[in-house]
Structure formats: structure tokens, C-alpha cells
Write a structure and sequence with these properties.
With 141 residues, this protein is of the alpha+beta class. The protein contains four helices and three strands. It has two domains: 45 residues; 70 residues, Histidine-containing Protein, Chain: A. β2, α4 and β3 form a beta-alpha-beta unit.
């Protein structure tokens, strides 16, 4: 009888020992299935689908013409108010924030002063220099 009891206890111990293995295997299977479901909904997988979908193009247009006119007025006012610059021979045009200066100046100091003042004006993205230095020296020097 003791032998039968001992065998019964041994078989129950084996089944208990085997259960955690089965539970572990079952948990691994569930974890693997969960992992596959997460990978299936991965953003990288959705990116391929989104690449095929054509997105609408968004075009934003700013009212740049009014801003260009304001920049031109500010440049004109700055140049005419400076006592060291004779701005009557300088033509100012602005397009998309790019200020273009054309005309004649008396010397390189005046030219660099004009360029420096224009670059400081708000709304100016770039200054294009098309100014020519004309010397009024009768000796030609």
C-alpha cells in the first residue's frame, strides 16, 4: 500500500512538474501571437499603404504683394532720410521679399551704406546689388 501511495504521489509530482512547462509553452504561444498582431499593425506596414494613397496637395499663398510694397516704401524712406546717401539715382524693386537696387552711386562707401541699411529693414529676405559706382572726379581717379 505504501508503494502504491508512493507511486501515486510520484505521478502527481510529475504531473505538477509538467504543468509549469505546459503553462510556459502556452504563455509563449500567446506571447508570440500577441507579438505577431502588434507587428501586423506596425506603422511601417501602414506606411506602404499610405504611400499608395494620393494625398491632396495643400497650397498656401501669402499676400506677398502688399508686403513687397511696404518693404519698397520702407527702403525708399530709409534711403531718402539718410543724409549721407543721394537716393535720387537709385531704383528700388521688391519681389517676394528680395530687394533689387539699381542705379548709380557716388562712391563705394555710399554703396555699402545703402546695402547695409537695406538688409536691416524688416521683411527683406535678400538684397540684390546692381548699383554702379560713378566717380565725379575730373581727373578720372
Amino acid at each position: 500500500m505504501r508503494k502504491a501511495l508512493h507511486l501515486q504521489q510520484a505521478s502527481s509530482v510529475r504531473s505538477i512538474e509538467q504543468r509549469p512547462c505546459c503553462l510556459l509553452r502556452h504563455r509563449c504561444t500567446i506571447s508570440f501571437a500577441l507579438l505577431l498582431s502588434v507587428i501586423g499593425s506596425c506603422p511601417a506596414a501602414d506606411a506602404a499603404e499610405k504611400a499608395n494613397d494620393r494625398m491632396q496637395e495643400v497650397v498656401i499663398q501669402a499676400k506677398r504683394q502688399a508686403a513687397d510694397e511696404e518693404v519698397t516704401r520702407a527702403v525708399r524712406k530709409t534711403l531718402t532720410s539718410d543724409p549721407w546717401i543721394y537716393a535720387e539715382h537709385v531704383t528700388i524693386t521688391t519681389e517676394n521679399g528680395v530687394v533689387r537696387l539699381e542705379g548709380f552711386v557716388g562712391d563705394t562707401g555710399e554703396r555699402f551704406r545703402i546695402l547695409r541699411l537695406c538688409r536691416k529693414i524688416p521683411g527683406t529676405r535678400r538684397v540684390v546689388d546692381a548699383l554702379e559706382v560713378v566717380s565725379n572726379d575730373p581727373d578720372g581717379g
